[in-house]
C-alpha cells in the first residue's frame, strides 16, 4: 500500500511538472522600421533600456546607428517609446558619439559602435557604452585600426548627453584591445557596475575577465579585474555578456571554434572554467562566432542565440533565425524542449542564403512585468546592406519581477 501511494505521488508530481505552463507564452514579430527595399536607412545595433519616470510608466530608451557595410557604422542615435514599444520617436543623433578626428593620424577618425545603454538607478542616469572603431574617408579603415578601447556617454536626468569619455585601463594586456562591446552588464545595489572585458595583444588570442567598476553618474572607473578565461583558437574569446540570476553571475561568450561558452561566478570576478554550450542531453550546439545574450525572468533564465540548423546551413555564420531556450542553471546547458524561434529566418537559407537577412547583433530588454524584447537590425551584406528594424515581443505567462520600475 505504501509503495502504491508513493508511486501515485511520483506520478502526480510528474504530471504537475509536465502540465506546468511554459514561462514564454507567446512571441510576436514587430517591424519598427522598414528598409528591405533600400529606400531608407538600415538601422543596426538597436539596444534599449527602461528609464523610470516620476509620473507614469517607464520610458524605453534605444540606441541605434546606421550600417552601410561590414564594420561601417554611422553616428549613434537615440529614440524613445512611451507606450511600451508600440511607437518610437524618430532617431536623433548623439553629438558625442559620432566621428572624431585623430590629430596625429591624417585622415583617420574615431567612430563608435556596439553601444549598450543601461539605466543606473542610484544616479538616475543612463550609461551608454560601446567602443571605438576607426575610419579613413567614408569607410572602415581596415589597415589603419589603432588600439581599441571602451567609450561612453551619459544621458543625464535632463535628457542631455555628456561628452565622449574613455573607460581607462592601464594594464598592458589591453594595449591592443580591451572592450565590453555589445555586452550586457549588471548594476549592483551599491551602484557599482559588473561587466566583463575581452582583451589581448596583436599576437595572442583574446581573453575574457570579470570587471567591477564604480560609477557616480558622470565617471566610470575600473575598480577590480578578475583572472582571465582563455581559448587559443582564432581570435579567442569575444563579446561576453553578463547576468545575475539567483545570486550567481553567469557569463556567456562568443568564440571561434564552433561553440559558445558559459561560465559562472559567485562574485562576478572569479569564474569557473568555461563550458561549451550544449543541450540537456549532452549534445553540442553548433555556434559560429556570433554573440549570445541573456533573457532573465524571475522564475527562469533563458539564452537568446544563433545556431546551426538544416534551414540555415548556408547562411553566413548561421546568423538567422534567432532562437531562445531556457537554461538549466545548475547543469549549465539549454533545455531543448523549451527552444523557440525568437525572430524567424525570412527567405531560403539553403538555396538563396544571400537573400536572408543576418540578425547576429541583437539585444534583450525586460520591458514590463508581462513582456520582454529582442531587438535587432537586419542586414543583407550582399544585397546593398538592406534590412528592417525588428522587435520580438515576448509575452510571459507569469509576471517578471526583474524589471526596472516593475513589481
Which tags fit this structure?
43% strand, 407 residues, 28 strands, 4% helix, six-stranded antiparallel beta sheet, Neuraminidase, 1 helix, five-stranded antiparallel beta sheet, disordered N terminus, mainly beta
Quick description:
This protein has 407 residues and is mostly beta strands. It has a single domain, classed as Neuraminidase. It has one helix at residues 2-19; strands at residues 24-33, 43-51, 59-69, 72-81, 92-93, 100-101, 108-120, 125-136, 139-140, 150-155, 165-166, 177-179, 186-187, 193-200, 207-215, 220-225, 238-245, 248-254, 260-265, 275-276, 293-297, 300-305, 322-328, 333-334, 340-343, 362-368, 371-377, 389-396.
- Described by the principal axes of the CA atoms, the overall outline is globular
Terminal-residue CA separation: 46 Å
Let me know the number of strands.
Answer: 28
Put simply, the count of helices is 1
Structural class: mainly beta
Q: Would you tell me which CATH topology applies?
A: Neuraminidase
Instruction: Domain count, please report it.
Output: 1
Amino acid at each position: 500500500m505504501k509503495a502504491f501511494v508513493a508511486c501515485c505521488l511520483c506520478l502526480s508530481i510528474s504530471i504537475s511538472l509536465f502540465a506546468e505552463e511554459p514561462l514564454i507564452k507567446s512571441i510576436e514579430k514587430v517591424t519598427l522600421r522598414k528598409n528591405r527595399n533600400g529606400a531608407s536607412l538600415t538601422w543596426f545595433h538597436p539596444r534599449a533600456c527602461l528609464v523610470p519616470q516620476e509620473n507614469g510608466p517607464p520610458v524605453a530608451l534605444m540606441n541605434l546607428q546606421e550600417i552601410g557595410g561590414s564594420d561601417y557604422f554611422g553616428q549613434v542615435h537615440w529614440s524613445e517609446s512611451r507606450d511600451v514599444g508600440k511607437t518610437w520617436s524618430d532617431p536623433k543623433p548623439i553629438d558625442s558619439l559620432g566621428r572624431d578626428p585623430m590629430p596625429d593620424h591624417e585622415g583617420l577618425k574615431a567612430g563608435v559602435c556596439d553601444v549598450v545603454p543601461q539605466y543606473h538607478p542610484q544616479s538616475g542616469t543612463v550609461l551608454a557604452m560601446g567602443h571605438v572603431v576607426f575610419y579613413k574617408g567614408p569607410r572602415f579603415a581596415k589597415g589603419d585600426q589603432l588600439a581599441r578601447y571602451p567609450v561612453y556617454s551619459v544621458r543625464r536626468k535632463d535628457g542631455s548627453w555628456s561628452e565622449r569619455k574613455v573607460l581607462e585601463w592601464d594594464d598592458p594586456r589591453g594595449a591592443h584591445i580591451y572592450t565590453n562591446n555589445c555586452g550586457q552588464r549588471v548594476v549592483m545595489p551599491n551602484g557599482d557596475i559588473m561587466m566583463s572585458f575581452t582583451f589581448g595583444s596583436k599576437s595572442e588570442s583574446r581573453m575574457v575577465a570579470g570587471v567591477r567598476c564604480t560609477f557616480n553618474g558622470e565617471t566610470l572607473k575600473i575598480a577590480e579585474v578578475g583572472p582571465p578565461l582563455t581559448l587559443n583558437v582564432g581570435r579567442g574569446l569575444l563579446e561576453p555578456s553578463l547576468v545575475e540570476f539567483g545570486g550567481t553571475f553567469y557569463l556567456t561568450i562568443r568564440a571561434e571554434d564552433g561553440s559558445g561558452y558559459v561560465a559562472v561566478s559567485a562574485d562576478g570576478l572569479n569564474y569557473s572554467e568555461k563550458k561549451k554550450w550544449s543541450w540537456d542531453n549532452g549534445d553540442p550546439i553548433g555556434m559560429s562566432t556570433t554573440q549570445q545574450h541573456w533573457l532573465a525572468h524571475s522564475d527562469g533564465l533563458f539564452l537568446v542565440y544563433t545556431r546551426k540548423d538544416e534551414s540555415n546551413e548556408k547562411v553566413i555564420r548561421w546568423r538567422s533565425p534567432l532562437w531562445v531556450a531556457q537554461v538549466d542553471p545548475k547543469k549549465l546547458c539549454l533545455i531543448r524542449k523549451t527552444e523557440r524561434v525568437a525572430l524567424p529566418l525570412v527567405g531560403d537559407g539553403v538555396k538563396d542564403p544571400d537573400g536572408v537577412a543576418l540578425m547576429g547583433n541583437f539585444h534583450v530588454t525586460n520591458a514590463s512585468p508581462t513582456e520582454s524584447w529582442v531587438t535587432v537590425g537586419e542586414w543583407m551584406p550582399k544585397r546593398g546592406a538592406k534590412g528592417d528594424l525588428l522587435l520580438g515581443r515576448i509575452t510571459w505567462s507569469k509576471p517578471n519581477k526583474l524589471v526596472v520600475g516593475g513589481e
